[in-house]
Amino acid sequence: MYKTINKSFARILRTPQYLILFVSNNCWMKCEHCWFNEEWKESNLNEQSLTFEEFEKIAESIKRINFLSITGGEAFSRDDIVELANMFAEKTKLNRYQIPTSGYLTDDIISKTEKILKNNPGIPFRVDVSLDGDEETHNFIRNRKKSFANAVETIKRLNKLKHQYSYFDVGVISTISNQNQNIVDRLAETIEDIKHDGEWMVNLVRGKTRAPKSIDVDLNNYIKAHKHIDSRIENGTYKGHSGHILAPWLTAKNIVRRNKIVNIVEGKCRGGACSAGSLGGVIYNDGSVYPCEMLEHSFGNIRDFNYDLPKLWNSPQGDWIRNNIEDTKCICTQECFLSLNLLMQPKHLAEIIKERIKLLNLNS
């Protein structure tokens, strides 16, 4: 059934509606838990990075993107990141977009964020800042002095912008790894101390990390972070997503997603029924296109298709990839694609509705 559903999505929509766009392979950090590391890039990125003009040609082939994640590396490291965001907003009928960041160069990030907001009024935009522990732990994981202090300052200043722009949201992302799993309580206190009033997203380390031991995590420590979030929801101190009409539903979805990840790690879930390669996709900075960050099969390089994403997306290779994902019952904990899967599977959609009703009752 899902083979037919995914093929239909690809044919009707023509391009991924949830697009992760790598605009740079450079980063200010050298994170212990990062899969997008030197070894991975050397093995997988085979061509020069796309230029602004090439990104523009790709955008011109896309009618609409429901959600665009502009990432890297560090997306804010690009001198033309403002122009790049503006261009995609203009040419693709963009519904929502975000930029994740380490938050290291605060002044640069704040300046570019405000320019993007001013240039694209009314389009929901979010910046997510990574924070992985208290100062000592965060700086160790990131292998960069002052990375903690700078990230905290960036979050505080972004929150000030949030009060100026109703369509702007600020998130904090923490990746639970071997290096911080034993300080989850301190991490939760740190998030609370900085008075962050947006979504706190807790990710589980994945992939072949820069430091191999990073992947060795006791699931109970990941669950502990859930409990901190749940308790804040219950006592009313946690506001979650904001900035657009569907934001509260994203908070409810994230509750279900965290539980789903636990079940996957515990082996309680079947694979397959995945929307990677149909609703969602990835374009790396060298032009290679993949269904998901966790898969090794590529659709091809966008340059070989004259920057025509619909043509590449609906190629015979694309059909093979979508079928292979279902045939192999592919399953992982990649948070972005799990979000899509929750929305396309009736059972999980019912769970999201249930969590949304709970949130309404708590806030009434």
Give the topology, please.
Elements: H1 2-13, E1 18-22, H2 38-44, H3 52-60, E2 67-71, H4 81-91, E3 96-101, H5 106-119, E4 125-130, H6 135-142, H7 147-162, E5 168-176, H8 184-193, E6 200-204, H9 219-235, H10 247-265, E7 280-283, E8 288-290, E9 300-301, H11 309-313, H12 316-327, H13 335-344, H14 346-363
Parallel strand pairs: 1-2, 1-7, 2-3, 3-4, 4-5, 5-6
Antiparallel strand pairs: 7-8, 8-9
Q: Which overall shape is indicated by the principal axes computed on the Cα atoms? A: globular
Q: Count of helices?
A: 14
Helicity level: 40-55%
| Major pleated sheet | 9 strands, mixed
Could you characterize the architecture of this molecule?
Helix 1 packs antiparallel against helix 12 (316-327) and helix 5 packs parallel to helix 7 (147-162). Strand 5, helix 8 and strand 6 (200-204) form a beta-alpha-beta unit. The protein has helices spanning 2-13, 38-44, 52-60, 81-91, 106-119, 135-142, 147-162, 184-193, 219-235, 247-265, 309-313, 316-327, 335-344, 346-363, and strands spanning 18-22, 67-71, 96-101, 125-130, 168-176, 200-204, 280-283, 288-290, 300-301. With 364 residues, the chain is α/β, with parallel strands linked by helices. The chain has a nine-stranded mixed sheet with strand order 6-5-4-3-2-1-7-8-9. Helix content is 46%, strand content 12%. The chain starts with a helix and ends with a helix. The radius of gyration is 19 Å and the shape is globular. The longest helix is centred in the last third of the chain and has 19 residues, at 247-265. It contains 14 helices and nine strands.
